[in-house]
TrEMBL record:
Belongs to the tetrahydrofolate dehydrogenase/cyclohydrolase family. This is Bifunctional protein FolD. The keyword Membrane does not apply. GO terms for molecular function: methenyltetrahydrofolate cyclohydrolase activity; methylenetetrahydrofolate dehydrogenase (NADP+) activity. NCBIfam families: PRK10792.1, PRK14186.1. Its EC number is 1.5.1.5, 3.5.4.9. SUPFAM superfamilies: Aminoacid dehydrogenase-like, N-terminal domain, NAD(P)-binding Rossmann-fold domains. NADP(+) binds at G165, R166, S167, I231. One of its GO terms (cellular component) is cytosol. Catalyzes the oxidation of 5,10-methylenetetrahydrofolate to 5,10-methenyltetrahydrofolate and then the hydrolysis of 5,10-methenyltetrahydrofolate to 10-formyltetrahydrofolate. Residues 139-279 form the Tetrahydrofolate dehydrogenase/cyclohydrolase NAD(P)-binding domain.
C-alpha cells in the first residue's frame, strides 16, 4: 500500500489564490479586508510567525497592519489598544500573537477582543458556538486540519479519531470539530497511561504534542490517516514533527509532512476568517 502525502503547502496556495479573487471582488464592492496583528515583545518564534501571517495576508490582497509593542507594555495599555481596534470600523480581524509576557493575563486579553473580529477563534463566545456546532470563527489550526481532510476526501463519520494533546488552540478544538462531524473521539495527553493502546486503534491520528518524533510506527494502525501538528526545531536548526515520518509512512494511508503540512493551512484559515469577518459573517449582536 502506498502512502498519500497530504500536501498542505500546495492546498494552502490554491486556497490563497481563490481568496485573492474573493478579496478583489470585495474591494470592488467597497470593502477592504483588514487584519491587525498585535505583537508584544521580541519572542523570535512569534516574530517569524507574525512575518509569515503579514506576508500571506498582503499576497491575498488583505490589508495587514502589525502593531509592535515593547515587552514592558502594561496589561491596561494592551486592553486599551484592543478597545480602540474593536471600535475601528476599518479593522475586520484582530490577532494578538501569543504567548504574551508573563505580567499580562492572556485569557483577559483574548476575551477583550470583539467576538466579531476574533479571527484566531479563541474567544469563549466563539468556542461555545463551535461546541454547539454553529457557524463561527474556528481556531485556525483545527480549521486547517478539517479543511485538509475534506480536500482529500477523507471520511470522518464513524471513524475513531485519537487526538494526542489537549491545548485550547489545537487538541481540544480539533477533537470537538471531529466529534461535530460524527467521529468517535478519544483525547490523550501527558497523563494518559499506555498511550499506544489508544493510538493503535486510531483511524485518524492527530499528534499535537510538541516533542520531536515521539510517535513511531508502533503507535500507528495500518491504514491510518496521520496528521502531524507538531513543529519542533532540532539542534541542527531543521524542523520536524511529532511523528517519525519515515517509519509512519510504512503504516499510514495518508500523512502530513512537517514542514509543508498543517502549518501553511493554519495561515490560510486565518486569511479565510479575516475575509469572513470583512463580509460580516458569524456576527454576535
Ligand atoms: P501545548 O504544549 O499547549 O500542548 C501539548 C499537549 O501535548 C498537552 O496537552 C500535553 O499534555 C500533551 N503531551 C505532552 N507530552 C506528551 C506525551 N509524552 N504524551 C502524550 N501527550 C503529551 O502545545 P500546542 O497544542 O500549542 O502545540 C502542540 C504542537 O503543535 C507544538 O509543537 C506546536 O509548535 C505545534 N503547533 C503547530 C501549529 C501549526 O500551525 N502547525 C499551530 C499551533 C501549534 P498535558 O495537557 O497533560 O500537559
Amino acid at each position: 500500500m502506498s502512502v498519500n502525502i497530504l500536501n498542505g503547502k500546495q492546498l494552502a496556495q490554491r486556497l490563497r489564490m481563490e481568496m485573492k479573487d474573493e478579496v478583489d471582488q470585495l474591494v470592488q464592492d467597497g470593502i477592504k479586508p483588514k487584519l491587525t496583528v498585535v505583537l508584544v515583545g521580541n519572542n523570535p518564534a512569534s516574530l517569524s510567525y507574525v512575518k509569515g501571517k503579514e506576508k500571506a495576508a498582503k499576497e491575498a490582497g488583505i490589508l495587514a497592519d502589525v502593531i509592535r509593542l515593547p515587552d514592558s507594555t502594561s496589561e491596561k495599555e494592551l486592553l486599551r489598544l484592543i478597545q480602540q481596534l474593536n471600535e475601528d470600523d476599518t479593522v475586520h480581524g484582530i490577532l494578538v500573537q501569543l504567548p504574551l509576557p508573563e505580567h499580562i493575563r492572556e485569557q483577559l486579553v483574548i476575551t477583550a477582543i470583539s467576538p466579531n473580529k476574533d479571527v484566531d477563534g479563541f474567544h469563549p463566545v466563539n468556542i461555545g458556538k463551535m461546541m454547539t456546532g454553529e457557524d463561527t470563527f474556528l481556531p485556525c489550526t483545527p480549521y486547517g486540519i478539517m479543511t485538509m481532510l475534506d480536500a482529500y476526501d477523507i471520511e470522518i463519520e464513524g471513524k475513531h479519531a485519537v487526538v494526542i494533546g489537549r491545548s485550547n488552540i489545537v487538541g481540544k478544538p480539533v477533537g470537538q470539530l471531529l466529534l461535530n462531524r460524527n467521529a468517535t473521539v478519544t483525547y490523550c495527553h501527558s497523563r494518559t497511561k499506555n498511550l499506544k493502546q489508544y493510538t493503535e486503534q486510531a483511524d485518524i491520528l492527530i499528534a499535537a504534542i510538541g516533542k520531536a518524533n515521539v510517535i513511531t510506527k508502533d503507535y500507528i494502525k495500518k491504514g491510518a490517516v496521520v496528521i502531524d501538528v507538531g513543529i519542533n526545531r532540532l539542534e541542527d536548526g531543521s524542523l520536524t514533527g511529532d511523528v517519525d515520518m519515515e517509519g509512519a509512512m510504512e503504516k499510514a494511508s495518508h500523512i502530513t509532512p512537517v514542514p509543508g503540512g498543517v502549518g501553511p493551512m493554519t495561515i490560510a484559515m486565518l486569511l479565510k476568517n479575516t475575509i469572513d469577518a470583512a463580509k460580516g459573517l458569524n456576527r454576535v449582536e
